[in-house]
Design goal:
8 helices; 245 residues; 14% strand; single chain; 44% helix; binds NADP nicotinamide-adenine-dinucleotide phosphate; alpha/beta
Length: 245
């Protein structure tokens, strides 16, 4: 679908990648861009219409879908990362928050906006996933589980909405230079690059955008993940546990 003339809604549009998605949608000629955020006053970019939305609040999600009936492109960008392990986390709070936001919040948005998109000719959904949808890393284990669940829902929603002509795009990325990855001292992609590739995928009708070399390599290695992916993660984790790192 064409970005030019579309009516987009971006979740988590107040900062990070979501802000860049909203800016690029404006610059690529979207007719209207709703910038959804828990604090709408923080959405200040020219051409972006702020709207209050916590994606974990089903009542508010329903209200926003009832209000924004002109949406043709939904960008499910909002997410949380708590850097939490499965076993040594003090409790399940981080795992539950990540699942509530990254999985149930995204699912809730897809369900609420599916009829809106259908009424407007099909449109598209972009779900912001991660390279950790493909494998587990102990450093952000429960986040990875939530992104794996969101990957599964993305594939399922695509199947369920095919009949109404809705394009459902999965975007996988490794580290992106935003607040979320601020603690990681590693090479990062720019949010501009990730958003541009995601929106290019929408325009090209592609169901998946693998936004960087790491995401492409990992996806291509999945059939041999226990040989090609997990040994180096295990080694790094064992070193971390033993205090070498
Ligand atoms: N940064 C990376 O390395 C990286 C890599 C791969 C994928 N991703 C994914 O890319 C997306 C954007 O992340 P980012 O890097 O821009 O992270 P970020 O800088 O931490 O921004 C996260 C955004 O999500 C919003 N958000 C969190 N919970 C929300 C909720 N319940 N309702 C509405 N908005 C909520 C935040 O709003 P507040 O300001 O109110 O907190 C913020 O706008 C996420 O889905 C993330 O998982 C990030």
């Amino acid at each position: 679908m064409k970005i030019g003339g579309s009516v987009a809604l971006v979740t988590g549009a107040n900062r990070g990648l979501g802000q860049v998605y909203a800016r690029q949608l404006v610059s690529r000629g979207a007719a209207k861009v709703y910038g959804a955020a828990r604090d709408p006053a923080a959405v200040t970019d020219p051409g972006v219409t702020p709207i209050a939305l916590d994606i974990t609040d089903p009542g508010r999600v329903a209200q926003v879908a009832a209000q924004c009936t002109d949406v043709t492109l939904l960008v499910n960008n909002a997410g949380v990362l708590k850097y939490s392990t499965f076993i040594n986390a003090p409790n399940l709070d981080a795992a539950r928050l990540e699942m509530e936001t990254n999985y149930f919040g995204t699912l809730s948005m897809c369900r609420a906006f599916a009829p809106v998109l259908a009424a407007n000719g099909g449109g598209a959904i972009v779900n912001m996933l991660s390279v950790t949808s493909f494998y587990t890393n102990p450093f952000d284990a429960s986040y990875g589980a939530s992104k794996a669940a969101a990957w599964s829902l993305t594939n399922g929603v695509r199947l369920e909405l095919h009949h109404q002509g809705t394009l459902v795009v999965a975007v996988h990325a490794s580290f992106i230079d935003t607040d979320m990855a601020a603690l990681a001292d590693v090479p990062k992609d720019s949010p501009e690059s990730v958003a541009r590739q995601a929106l290019d995928a929408v325009e090209a009708g592609q169901v998946e955008a693998l936004a960087d070399e790491r995401s492409r390599t990992v996806k291509a290695s999945l059939s041999r993940d226990h040989e090609l992916i997990y040994p180096s993660i295990q080694e790094f984790w064992d070193d971390a546990v033993s205090g070498t790192h």
